[in-house]
Amino acid sequence: MRTALPLFFICCLFWACQPAQKLDLNLQSPDGHINLNFDPDAFQYTVKKNQKAIMAPSQLGLIFKEEIANGPYQLINSTKNNHQEKWQPVWGQFDEFEDHHNEMILNLENAQGFKMNVIFRAFNDGLAFRYQIPAQKTKTSLHLIDELTTFALAKEDTVWWTEGNANTYERPYQKTLTTALDSANTPITIEGENGLIVLHEAALVDYSDMRLKNVGNNTYKAHLCPWPDGTLVKTQSPMQSPWRTIILADDLNGLVASSMILNLNEPSKIKDTSWIHPFKYIGIWWGMHTGYYTWTEGERHGANTKNAKAYIDFAAKHNIEGVLFEGWNKGWENWGKGNFFDFVTPYDDFDFEEVADYAQKKNVQLIGHHETGGNIPMYEQKLDTALKQLVHFDMHALKTGYAGGIIPEGQPKHGQFMVRHYLEVVKKGAENKIMINAHEPIKPTGLERTYPNMMTREGARGMEYNGWSKKITPEHTTVLPFTRIIAGPMDYTPGIFNITYDGQKQRWHPKDTFAITRVNTTLAKQMALWVVLYSPQQMASDLIENYEGHPCFKFFQDLPSKWNESRVIDGKIGDFAVIGRRHENDWYVGAITDEHPRKLKVELDFLEKDKKYRAVIYGDGPETDYDKNPKAYQIKTIDDLSSADRLELDLCKSGGSAIQIIPL
């Protein structure tokens, strides 16, 4: 028997007036398959899909420090709206999205005349709700001390999740029963007989990150990341919370195709977006993580003028737009010692003016790099000057980093303080026509629609862990497309060809036992990840000497950055994934597997009928062996393919295939 939350918390907030009994408090998705019901007496909601329970009675409500904003609340009115439009993103996995939803707004008021709204939206791919404090008679400062929101799952199912943490999203994914989840960062992905459910949030602006806490009885409660003084959110009226989102999909393709998170965000606030575009890039980054290069100046310093020109030449030769140089600026040798970076002064062996001029002549975009070390006052003080320097050198892309703990001490990376900071960097980037790629970021919640210069981010365990640990398992990348990347793009930085680091590994990381001497994939799987793991800024992360003259690098050279359509062709979370993306008339397909070898039959029914195609398959070959020969590959071409055909792929342990399909 399901038990309610403690009655004290509910009764102190809400009660229903008699007129509420006459209001229609049901909300359906436009196609009628999803139904939400609101119970004004308990202030709870329930959700059904195709008449099957998805959410049992689940709580709503906010508690503030200020009593004027607390209950009991009276339900005054309920209004409904319908919205339908199609819109085109600046970039994305699709070239067009449809926002079609029904909306229900509940108007509440307490005895002091303080007003609150709860807004529900029902889409064909899920449901969302948010709390809204409208403008009051007088502006009121508010301190949120609890959010009562719960998600009471109607059925015990399987869930994929990472540990709830206030400072990192880089914990490993776990697969458990929903009742066994303790505390999780969002998104989490639930799979069961009734399809797939993703719990997350949208439009996280001036609020704290929501984690989920298991409170028993298969129920998760919103668990916000607090300020050092324990306050969850510091705000004033008017204000609104992020959307609490429940994506519902029948299959993996429907999950990846869901546009609900984006639809819940405001349209672009950047009027001229002509300078914003997806692109491919390379850099010396991987050399730092294997110890081949250093961030600091010295004999192994990677960001020097000579090396920079070599990377720019390679990019120009191979149809690669961007080049990233980490470790270009002074201060790395003083890591953690006060204001150790000024973000404008290069090391003596890196002539910024000369490198920037050389890149412009070669029509290659330099990507700036600002590693903050978590020192937020230092970065915010110098941000305007640092961005102006990028503008001076005609640079329109920037990678930021927040490695280490946050200063001021005690501020968590996922609290309201940092949510404000991350967005401020994006806004200032937009003012200076600079695209942002954030590492150690706040999680994506669809704000790339509102600020399309927020291109990509890390926000999960990425490729770098391969450089100094065993923490990237063969399974890991088969989980990411259906969990973390449902929230938004990820800069995973795939593409390592020197799988075993031959001649390119030195110890530098304190956790590096030097027993780790490889990436836990085959070469072909690394190529497939360029397609499987979506990012509008996609990196070929290996050293350029490992690409030069390699036949497989042609796949990255040909790979588009902009897509018209994406689809999951086949897959199972944690086992394998086959994902295809279309650019105009060409298709690119990535297939990957976990620690188990796998034979896959890829149906080509997504191709245009009555057309013939050529497939170039870069895959594991007869000589490929995960343990003994992971760098072996084969390239084969198949002509005269049609939508009635299928490709048969033979994937090694942690192997893959990267496929280019073009019309004849």
TrEMBL record:
Complex formation: Monomer.
Cofactor: Ca(2+)
Record's protein name: Alpha-glucosidase
Annotated ranges, domain Glycosyl-hydrolase 97 N-terminal: 27-267
Species this chain originates from: Persicobacter diffluens
Keyword Cytoplasm in annotation: no
Keyword entries, A-Z: Calcium, Signal
GO MF annotation terms: carbohydrate binding
Span of domain Glycosyl-hydrolase 97 C-terminal oligomerisation: 562-661
Signal peptide feature range: 1-22
Domain Glycosyl-hydrolase 97 catalytic: 285-460
